[in-house]
């Protein structure tokens, strides 16, 4: 991008303006729309101090190249002139573990953590393809990164089981955790790729709270939604032995028929994926949160509790 310095090498990987690149092997201009949005916002703040308008030239330059290199699948949230669409509200389903239907992991010590592959009590990490999940939050009301927001993420394991609920893992708390958004509005979790159970497209749940002090009250969530995972990556992962049954379950559902994503085929919820089954994947999603609107999530969608589907060892999903 004209006028942009080269990324700064660090032990954790290349950075630009103190932020790690979403795609380390690509140029700054090829980091995706959510990274461009954060750069635009920081430039606007700088130009505002100088009394200069941001203009449209910057946006044009950002749009000059935005492809993902290597093995990737992408669906980018709609952005225009520094705006981002609000993430759709979705059901938390019957397995949230947030106290809304009984079990409450958000009251537990240690729930604020990056690595969610183990239960809070310890033990072995759950089996599966490594997955890094990064959500980049924008505070739509203030057109700025949603810093200090707390994000609670949870999903099923490779077998389709939910800790705290599925038979045999009721006393486990794996694949559940909270992170607090940094100054750029980003949170990152270390997890595994979820399996696909009958009746649902592969997905990851999340809730957004204004601050970490709010997580013990599920009614304070300002957004509840789900991340959809791209079909080509799912097909690759589900060939592996840890994911027995997932391939056949995936064959029975599409984004257009899924009871949660069917409204728009997950237009704003389909993650950008990079990586490989051998080395692990990274899923990235831009999440717009508008605190001026009233959250509508919590009620079950049509098609049965939680949107239909049956994880192994549990009741209707």
TrEMBL record:
Keywords linked to the UniProt accession: Dioxygenase, Oxidoreductase
Gene Ontology MF term list: dioxygenase activity
Protein name: Intradiol ring-cleavage dioxygenase
Ranges of Gly residues composition bias in the record: 301-317
Signal sequence extent: none
Pfam families in the record: Dioxygenase_C (PF00775)
Domain of life: Bacteria
Annotated source species: Gordonia hydrophobica
Biased amino acid composition, Low complexity: 68-83
Bias (Pro residues) ranges: 1-12
Domain Intradiol ring-cleavage dioxygenases: 111-200
Region named Disordered: 1-22, 68-106, 292-317
């Amino acid at each position: 991008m004209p006028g942009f310095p080269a990324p700064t090498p660090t032990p954790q990987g290349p950075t630009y303006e103190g932020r790690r690149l979403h795609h380390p092997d690509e140029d700054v201009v090829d980091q995706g729309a959510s990274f461009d949005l954060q750069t635009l916002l920081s430039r606007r703040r700088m130009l505002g101090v100088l009394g200069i308008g941001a203009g449209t030239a910057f946006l044009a330059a950002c749009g000059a190249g935005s492809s993902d290199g290597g093995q990737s699948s992408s669906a980018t949230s709609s952005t225009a002139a520094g705006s981002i669409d609000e993430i759709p509200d979705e059901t938390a389903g019957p397995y949230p573990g947030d106290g809304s239907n009984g079990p409450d992991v958000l009251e537990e010590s240690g729930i604020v953590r990056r690595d969610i592959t183990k239960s809070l009590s310890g033990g072995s990490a759950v089996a599966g393809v490594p997955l890094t999940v990064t959500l980049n939050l924008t505070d739509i009301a203030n057109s700025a990164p949603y810093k200090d927001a707390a994000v609670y993420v949870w999903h099923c394991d490779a077998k389709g089981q939910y800790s705290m609920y599925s038979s045999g893992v009721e006393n486990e708390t794996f694949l559940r955790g909270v992170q607090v958004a940094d100054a750029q509005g980003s949170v990152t979790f270390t997890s595994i790729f979820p399996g696909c159970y009958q009746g649902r497209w592969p997905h990851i749940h999340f809730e957004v709270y204004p601050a970490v002090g709010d997580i013990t009250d599920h009614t304070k969530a300002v957004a509840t939604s789900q991340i959809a995972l791209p079909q080509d990556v799912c097909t690759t992962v589900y060939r592996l032995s840890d994911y027995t049954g997932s391939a056949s379950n995936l064959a029975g559902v599409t984004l257009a028929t899924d009871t949660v994503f069917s409204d728009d085929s997950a237009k704003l919820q389909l993650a950008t994926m990079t990586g490989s089954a051998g080395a692990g994947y990274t899923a990235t999603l831009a999440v717009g949160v508008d605190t001026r609107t009233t959250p509508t999530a919590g009620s079950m969608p049509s098609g049965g509790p939680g949107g239909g589907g049956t994880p192994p060892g549990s009741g209707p999903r």
